[in-house]
Amino acid sequence: MGRGRAKAKQTKVARQLKYTNHHIDYDRLREELGADPRREDSPTPSEQESERGR
């Protein structure tokens, strides 16, 4: 017994993660990681897949 609160909290956290908008600023991320600015701006296949999922 006693698992009710833990399960409810896990469910709440899971819903927040699922339905919260996770906007990522890729340009800022590139700057922070020190990515090569000379790289073409054409999206990689993984970026294209993530754009389709929105």
Topology:
Blueprint lengths: L2 H17 L6 H8 L11 H8 L2
Account of the 3D structure:
It holds the Pfam family DUF3073. This is DUF3073 domain-containing protein. InterPro entries: DUF3073. By secondary structure, the protein is mainly alpha-helical. 61% of the residues lie in helices and 0% in strands. It starts with a helix and ends with a helix. It has a domain of 34 residues. The mean pLDDT is 81.
Oligomerization state of this entry?
single chain
Count of DSSP helices?
3
Largest sheet: none
Q: List unreliable stretches of 5+ residues.
A: none
Supply the helix-strand structural class.
mainly alpha
Shape: elongated
Keywords for this structure?
3 helices, DUF3073, DUF3073 domain-containing protein, 54 residues
Give me a quick take on this structure.
The protein is mostly helical and 54 residues long. Helix content is 61%, strand content 0%. The model has no long low-confidence stretch (mean pLDDT 81).
